[in-house]
Design brief:
With 199 residues, the chain is an alpha+beta fold. 32% of the residues lie in helices and 18% in strands.
């Protein structure tokens, strides 16, 4: 469902409260204000047959710790070096609740996804700098005046939240609803601390 298309066509269903988790600048795009900057991701998947895994140098393939049939030791391995073009590799075979044969390395081959940072594409992360911060404050002022809408989450708050911060943010919004009858954040995004995202 395209929220913006339905809103433009006047086809949104009636609601008492809208919880909006998308980019805050998209919500107010009709105001004609500049867009906020976001960092996106590009995912490149690679499948490795068992014979391909066997050809990898031993320092790249650690069968003693990964088990046969795996590319890496964990589901997600980050690569924070500026010398590496991708930011992390995700190997899906490590996802919990896999069949026993997968856990034991008896299923040959594996699928990985390399994540590449990108300036284009769907918004994932805010780009923190003074200009974006000042622009966000203008959007936040509009959001505080918007009746019947609660702006929550990384994109709506223009803030990188660690997972624990994101959960705490949601719980505090719910607590605020119980205490005051208002579905709204208890504190500003910057009050959660820096998070581990891009600085």
């Amino acid at each position: 469902v395209d929220f913006f298309k339905l809103r433009e066509q006047g086809l949104l269903p009636e609601y008492g409260m809208l919880v909006y988790t998308g980019p805050i600048d998209s919500y107010f795009s009709q105001q004609g204000m500049p867009k906020l900057e976001y960092r996106s991701l590009r995912f490149v998947e690679e499948y490795f047959e068992q014979s391909d895994l066997d050809k990898l140098p031993i320092e790249e393939r650690k069968p003693a710790t990964t088990g046969e049939g795996f590319f890496q030791e964990a589901m997600v391995v980050n690569y924070p070096s500026p010398d590496v073009k991708f930011t992390r590799i995700v190997e899906y075979k490590h996802v919990p609740n896999q069949p026993e044969a997968v856990k034991q390395g008896k299923v040959p081959g594996t699928l990985i996804a390399k994540e590449y940072s990108s300036a284009e594409g769907d918004p994932y992360y805010p780009v923190p700098n003074p200009d974006n911060r000042a622009l966000y404050e203008k959007y936040r002022a509009l959001a505080e005046k918007e009746e019947g809408v609660c702006f929550v989450g990384r994109l709506a708050s223009y803030k990188y939240f660690n997972m624990d911060q994101a959960i705490l943010n949601a719980l505090e919004i719910y607590d605020n609803l119980k205490e005051t009858g208002k579905l709204a954040p208890k504190r500003k995004p910057e009050d959660f601390g820096p998070g581990d995202g891009p600085k």
